[in-house]
């Protein structure tokens, strides 16, 4: 598809800016995207899918003629995508450490309370009574 055909299909000038091309594509895509045609028959959805693919190709041709895709636009990779991390992953170990510290605190609190309960008992009137140690 030539840039002139692509511009005609999207309804923009051949020298339109990338935001204008994207806006025209979005406007036409809202009308012909097959996922937005819930009430349509299978044949109508198939035709809309072909039309949407033509619109996407027209957008890609016009944007490629400008030199680059804008940030945030989807791009098709030529091969497998490899994700490279630029910063270390910190989430797993820090979460484990937080749970470990919380578990130790809970064990200490329960142990202290249990030890307190064996020495002192509160009766039904709210009076604390010391219980003799077990032999």
- Helical proportion? 55-70%
H/E order of the elements?
HHHHEE
Count of alpha and pi helical runs: 4
Count of β-strands: 2
Mean pLDDT: 75
Structural class, please? mainly alpha
| Number of domains as seen in the coordinates | 2
Summarize the biggest pleated sheet: 2 strands, antiparallel
Separation of termini?
Answer: 96 Å
Q: What share of residues are in beta strands? A: under 5%
- Overall spatial form: elongated
CATH topology of the largest domain: Helix Hairpins
Q: Can you tell me the residue ranges where pLDDT is under 50 for at least 5 consecutive residues?
A: none
Strand order of the largest sheet: 1-2
- Write the CATH architecture name of the largest domain: Orthogonal Bundle
Taking Cα atoms only, what radius of gyration do you get, to the nearest Å? 34 Å
Q: Indicate the CATH class of the largest domain.
A: Mainly Alpha
Q: How is this structure best described in words?
A:
The protein has helices at 3-10, 18-32, 42-66, 91-119; strands at residues 120-122, 128-130. It is mainly alpha-helical. It has 2 domains: 3-66, Helix Hairpins (Orthogonal Bundle); 91-130, no CATH class. Strand 1 and strand 2 (128-130) form a beta hairpin. Helix 2 packs antiparallel against helix 3 (42-66). The radius of gyration is 34 Å and the shape is elongated. The termini are far apart.
């Amino acid at each position: 598809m030539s840039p002139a055909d692509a511009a005609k299909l999207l309804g923009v000038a051949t020298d339109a800016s990338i935001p204008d091309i994207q806006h025209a594509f979005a406007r036409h895509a809202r009308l012909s995207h097959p996922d937005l045609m819930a009430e349509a028959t299978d044949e109508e959805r198939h035709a809309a899918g072909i039309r949407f693919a033509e619109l996407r190709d027209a957008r890609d041709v016009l944007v490629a003629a400008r030199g680059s895709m804008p940030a945030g636009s989807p791009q098709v990779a030529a091969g497998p995508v490899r994700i490279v991390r630029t910063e270390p992953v910190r989430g797993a170990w820090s979460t484990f450490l937080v749970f470990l510290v919380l578990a130790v605190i809970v064990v200490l609190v329960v142990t202290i309370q249990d030890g307190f309960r064996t020495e002192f008992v509160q009766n039904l009137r709210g009076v604390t009574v010391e219980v003799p140690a077990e032999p």
